[in-house]
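Q: Can I see a sequence and its folded structure?
A: Here is a first one.
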Amino acid sequence: MASKKDLTEAQSFSRRRLLTAFTSGASGTKELEPAKPLRTVVAGLALSALVVVGGAFYGLVSPGLPDEWEHNRLVLATDTGGRFVSADGTLFPVLNTASARLLIPADDFSIVTTKAALLADLPVGPSLGIVGAPDQLPGSGELIGTGWTACLGEDASTVLTISADPVAASAGSAVVVSTSAGLSVVAGGRHYPLPTDHADAVLRALGLGDAPRLSVDGRWVNLFRTGTALSPMIVPDAGQPLAGTTLPAGQVVHVAGSPPEQRFLLNADGTLASISPLAYQLYLLGTGAQLGTAVEVGATELAEFTNAGYPAGAADWPEQALDVQQGTACALLATIDGSPATVLAAAEGGEDATARAVPVTSDGAVWMDPGAGSVVRAGTGEQAATVLYLIDSTGTAFPVQDDPETLHRLGYQEEDVADVPAPWLQLLPVGPGLSTAAAGTPVAAGSAGTAAGEG
């Protein structure tokens, strides 16, 4: 066994040998040069760049969820069609686009597209939305708020057309229509009821004795404002003597030398009221049958009479005899003096106005320009209350919660809203109401099938 001294000498020898190798180099070989440190740095930078570029490329071909996806976002899974609204990191399947937009404040609305695999591990809440709400909303540039036409079809049917190319309004013509309520004359912007016992005589007096009587839906007639009934004109206190003249009250006079159709009615209070040619024809069926036709008088004979300040007969009666409407009779929603109004119109060339659009309801009762729609506030004019409606490309009218935020959530501004008389909405099928509260209601099982996003 080696002694302690032997071990100490052996260790000293090994240290001297190692020191000699470091200081004298390798025996019989070339001295090794130290590596350049910059080469390692460059290689590291290149490798880092490859990692960054590779990560960016992977992000492009396989994007993940962006920042702030967790709240008030419409999340779409592009590979499965899943549709969700996010709230506090939870995904809620939503039935349709309208419901999704109603759930998200207008200023926060944003769409996130991703793959279904990236959503697989996220918490999912119950399905939300309004059953039957629209899945496609018309853009603000596709809204049509005027120029609607409702044309008479066969078998008393009515065809509503919402198109940017409406038929032209007619002037001075009329149609005679028959509904369950009786006969009416439609002229201008009104429908005038006819008396049941003098209808034929009145029609002859109006120049409509040969006009066909069109059987129509009462809803079509209601599109026009109700006018004063066209009936034989009866003058109160007719036949009573008047001071300052030998003519009785109720007499119609014509001043010598004046235009032939310029006539006046002597009222019982001693005033003179102008009477239009049409009102004069109705006068002849009433008081005129007793007192006769207009009496020719000199201007001096009427010098002491004052003007009544109002015409004889109803103020809303047409002034002249009417021509029979030619072609397909239509109601036209027009804008007159800045306000909506319905006037009588005819399909151009006698053709059906529906040729300008396509049918969007199964019964063919509603036609629209493809992709068009409307946002309207119905109940203007003679209507006291108003209701906001969204009309989508299927011709369905959806009542909308009428406040600015709800309107903005659906993607519209107040200037997109058109005023429409309420009777026009009676021609459209009505869908469910659209409101923020209804959109946030969980969908009952089985009420609408499978919600978007559920498998």
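Q: Show me another, different protein.
A: A second, unrelated one:
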Amino acid sequence: MGENSMATRKQKMKFAIKRFKGFWNQFKRSKRGMIGLIVIAFFCIIAIFAPLIAPYEPIDPQLGEGEYPANGAYGIKIAEDLCKPAWYKYLPFISRGQTKITEKFYSKIKIYPELGNYTVQVFRREGEKNATSSTLLLSHRVASIEEIKAIYLNGTSQIIPESDWTIPRSGEIDRLREIQLKGIYPNNTIFEVTYLTGVDLIENIKVVEDHKFTSEESFNQWICSTNSTDPANPKINYNTEDGYVTKKGDNRGCIEIVYQKSSSKPVEVTIEKPFEYPYYEPPKSFFIHTSIKVEGASTVKLRTLFIRKEEAKEIPYLLKEIPIMSSGSYNHKSGSFSSDADIVARNIKARPPQDRIFASPGNYTFALQVIIDPKVVTDPEGTVKVYLDNVDCMIYGNTFGLLGTDNGIPFPRDLFSLLVYGSRVSLFVGVLTAIFSTVIGLFLGLISGYMGGIVDEIIMRFADLLLVLPTLPLFIVLVVSLQTVTGYVSMWNIIIILTLFGWMSFARSVRSMVLSLRERTFIEAAKAAGAGKFHIINRHILPNVFALVYITLATSVPSAIITEASLSWLGLGDPLLPSWGKILYDFQSSMIAVSKGLTEYWFWVFPACIAIATLATAFILVGYALDEILNPRLRERR
């Protein structure tokens, strides 16, 4: 008996394999089906291996989490916001280097009676709404002014001579961004300023390769010097025991400065890290972090600066000078320099500060200076020890990654990583919704079609009621209601909502097939043999409607994918999930399309749109191929 059962199972397995081979041979002949299957397989591979393919986390990506004690448990941002793709630099039509720019300004005269009819002329750059600046505020730094032209209402124009305009802070002409006109010109005069500026695509520069000093080789990359006349005092060494440990197992390497009090003059110790800045345009910002511990003195001064080398001279730019108190533990200092609100703006007298520092391509040095005053030495033996660790400098450019970055706060997101992880959400929601709604529709369609009577009426009238409701507005109302009640909408909430309103059409199709099948002679024969209702449904009717199940599964996925993307695009999706619809929502809420135009940041929105359309089309192509194979009316005769 057992041998017969085993033989029967083997025969069934062989028959199933034979049927699948026959189906696969038919499916391979469908070009549409194969294209769709390849595309689906491609997106499935991306979804499965997303952590390996995507270079960064999709939500709040960070560099060095926990490695910058001044930031707590957080790391630093991976890039600036609204960066363009790194491959832009290979496009021949993208301007780089010295470029001539013409900007147009519209003027308006304002009179203040309360100030004795004080008159001032204000300007707005073309594209701006309000005139608020009393100077011609340029959008780029200036290498040189070509000409300034005034165009009057009567159509005449004149070139304004250099004697009629001035440059605020004229000593900084290489960082110029504004022009002050000396006289008052007629109301509504248009000014055209033509100037040369450096335009470039800048990549991030990590000045310090190993900010944790994990090896002596890392220490040797720094140039150490002092103003002391004694070459042996102070000593600057690599220390392997007293570094700051950010997490268990970290290397304890650091820079150690040992000073022995020998005179009354302050001693300056400078450590420098040279680097090259090869770009014509200044970076968008830069970040600096330092951990410092002081022993044997009540306080020391820590200076942070950049040094620009021009021919035979060096130009230092002091960023900050901070007193460091001796507390027996490390003090952690960090700063992100990107606006004139920083102290660096006052020290360097430039807005923004990086404009003055990185005026042109060249060789630069990032430096730290430790100033030890013998007057504040507290150690009885006159020994002062200063430890430096976690010294890092990151310069942020305007290009990043394969698709650039969005404007996420405080951590801009890598758009390529968002796109890769978004495939997971779309496939998960689409496939699960299709499976759940198909199973519900199959069950209700079988029951309704075979049972008939009052059961059929109740199920079909309920399905009709749901079919006449406008789905997307209803989804929006339900999701908003969930947000109001629970304060949060998860991906599972969306799957449940899509499932509850996605089974009706399939249930009606199954019912119509069952109504036809139950009148067939083999069903009558089964009834005559004493088979029960559920036995007949399971063994005789269900196998005959399964072809429709496969087709419906394939064709139901696209609508679920598009609906989920639509809800996320409207801001009604799961805010913690990186979906393609959320990419579109972030782009819409940023107002970039209004302020800068859609074409300038096409890489933010178009890849997600293309991915949604491609994946949905792939499932539709597979559905068409299945329909051609499994539908008797469309089946190809070969």
